[in-house]
Specification:
With about 550 residues, this protein is α/β, with parallel strands linked by helices. The protein is built from 21 helices and 18 strands. It has four domains: about 10-235, 3-Layer(aba) Sandwich (Rossmann fold), CATH 3.40.50; about 250-305, no CATH class; about 310-390, no CATH class; about 410-545, tt1808, chain A (Alpha-Beta Complex). It has helices at about 10-15, 25-35, 50-60, 80-85, 105-120, 135-140, 150-165, 175-185, 185-200, 220-225, 250-260, 265-270, 285-295, 310-315, 320-335, 355-365, 385-410, 410-415, 420-435, 445-455, 505-515, and strands at about 40, 90-95, 165-170, 210-215, 230-235, 245-250, 275, 280-285, 335-340, 370, 380, 465-470, 470, 475, 480-485, 490-500, 530-535, 540-545.
């Protein structure tokens, strides 16, 4: 069996060392067919973007003329129209993945280093008398300031003059500095900087044969539109290029057969399948490769980083009752319905609009369309697989675990039926935290409180199966906590109510009557069932148990 290339993005290394390679070389054919305009391909992180960029470099780059890397691969059977483009052009391969910095000054310093390294690599172009040698040397010495955003486009021009051939630019992870700026408070500055790079390099550049750009967030390319509005952008909702990033069903079956794991196909599918790119079913590539090595079902992709934006977004939304409620329903039911995909979003709109938020979850690989999309205005999104579900649960509960469990021990009190301590600490926590919120007093109030309590208790999902708004007996309870193992003897039915004019006693009695009349406890009769009503009025709360 071939070795598995985890952590290796260099196409040449994979081929020459005989690592496992799932042939994606027909991507080259499709890009040649799409040569007219710069191209942007949006895919989640760790879905083969960098390997494919490396493959394109080795195919088109005249520096690698007469290489045998593509012998026996699919592109070699496509005919002279495509083979004639092999090793024909000067190619600049560049990645912005190291440009996520804590401040704008550090970003500029790192970009100077990136350009200096590129200019050193192509220093031979100084042989051409038309090259501005003073500018070139300022870039190498990291002294250029005024025209730093033009450095990439000038290098394209210098290579065109040297070789008398148009240049191909392959830019990987273009959105990393923009996301870094958004997360670290210098968003406008970095956005303006990258806009200028895109405008000078990709817009109406006669020296450019083709630009290929990849990233995770289409959000960034839309914000760069005024700088480079001539891109063909292919998202995960498009059929174009849908089978080149990640592994298809057929490819997975062949790989599992090669490694003697054909009998594991159903479990592999449950853990790592479920993505829908265009109309193509896709398996998570990094998770598959790790599984082939360890042959254990674990969370691999979700532990590879790159989720800062998503985590920040989830934490920022913890006081948004509608989104918080939808998020917990997502964790429980696995789907979000009636989403209007916002494929032209911008980062500044992330914190409010539900359609923008769920679109972002889709672009990052944490949600995927339930079926092929025919109408962007009414899309059902689903959690693609078990690996992602576990990741979302961990992200959702991590804030509560860090800021609540260490101080209030709510779940410990529930495990041991310490209702006195639970009630006392819950009331203290509400008084402390609600001072930071504008607590709704309108018809959305009950939903707000329900979502807040649900989010609070989600931190105990390793001890209790937590259900929300489920059918039981003759009605729907608000919350049910059912032990996940036999060591825990207590189960809980919780009703969350909104009190008016301090009529707590009346509302609490109404809650218990609802529990009793609808026989909510039928589902958990084998446990010691604790009935709990939590009544809120603004920042006041009263809890009773029976």
């Amino acid at each position: 069996m071939k070795k598995v290339p985890t952590g290796i993005d260099d196409f040449k290394t994979i081929i020459e060392r005989n690592y496992l390679y799932i042939d994606k070389t027909l991507l080259i054919k499709d890009i040649i067919d799409d040569f007219d305009k710069p191209l942007c391909i949006i895919r989640p992180r760790r879905f083969c973007k960098s390997v494919n960029m490396s493959m394109l470099d080795y195919y088109f780059n005249l520096e690698y003329k007469d290489n045998n890397l593509f012998k026996g691969l699919k592109i070699m059977k496509c005919g002279d129209t495509y083979l004639s483009e092999m090793n024909r052009y000067p190619v600049i391969l560049i990645s912005f993945k190291e440009l996520k910095k804590n401040n704008y000054s550090s970003f500029i310093d790192r970009y100077k280093t990136l350009m200096a390294d590129l200019y050193l690599k192509y220093k031979f172009v100084l042989e051409n008398p038309d090259v501005d040698k003073e500018f070139y040397n300022r870039i190498i010495k990291k002294q250029e300031e005024s025209e730093l955003t033009n450095a990439l486009s000038y290098l394209v021009k210098y290579l065109r003059k040297y070789y008398n051939k148009q240049v191909i630019v392959l830019l990987d992870e273009y959105d990393v500095p923009i996301i870094g700026g958004y997360l670290n408070g210098y968003y406008k500055e970095v956005l303006d900087f990258v806009k200028e790079i895109f405008a000078s390099t990709f817009k109406n550049n006669i020296n450019l044969k083709k630009g290929v750009v990849t990233g995770v967030f289409r959000v960034a390319i839309e914000e760069l539109e005024t700088g480079a509005n001539n891109f063909n952008v292919y998202n995960i909702t498009d059929n174009e290029y849908s089978n080149y990033y990640g592994f298809t069903e057929e490819e997975i079956k062949e790989v599992l057969k090669e490694y003697g794991l054909s009998d594991k196909i159903n479990e592999v599918k449950k853990w790592y399948d479920g993505y829908l790119f265009g109309n193509t079913t896709i398996y998570n590539p990094i998770s598959i490769l790790n599984y082939l090595i360890k042959q254990r079902f674990e969370t691999y992709w979700v532990n590879t980083g790159g989720v800062d934006l998503l985590k920040n977004l989830i934490f920022d939304l913890r006081d948004n009752s509608m989104i918080l409620d939808e998020f917990h329903r997502l964790l429980e039911n696995g789907v979000i319905e009636r989403v209007s995909l916002d494929l032209h979003m911008n980062l500044t709109s992330l914190k409010g609009d539900r359609n923008t938020i769920w679109t972002l979850f889709m672009l990052t690989g944490y949600l995927t369309p339930l079926g092929e999309i025919t109408n962007l205005e009414n899309v059902t999104l689903k959690i693609p697989n078990l690996e992602v579900k576990k990741s979302l649960e961990n992200i959702a509960s991590s804030w509560f675990k860090k800021t609540i469990l260490t101080k209030y021990n709510f779940i410990e009190y529930l495990i041991n039926n310490r209702m006195d301590m639970f009630i006392s600490n819950f009331e203290k926590y509400i008084l402390e935290t609600f001072s930071y919120y504008d607590v709704p007093s309108n018809d959305d109030g009950e939903r707000f409180y329900h979502a807040y309590v649900l989010g609070l208790l989600t931190s105990g999902n390793e001890y209790f199966e937590i259900k929300s708004n489920r059918e039981s007996g003759y009605g729907r309870y608000d919350l049910m906590l059912k032990p996940v193992n036999n060591d825990i003897k207590y189960a809980y039915i919780i009703e969350v109510k909104l009190a008016n004019n301090d009529n707590f006693d009346e509302i609490i009695e109404k809650g218990f009557k609802q529990i009793d009349e609808n026989k909510y406890e039928n589902e958990i009769q084998e446990y010691n069932v604790i009935k709990m009503v939590i009544a809120f009025n603004g920042k006041k709360v009263k809890i009773e148990t029976r």
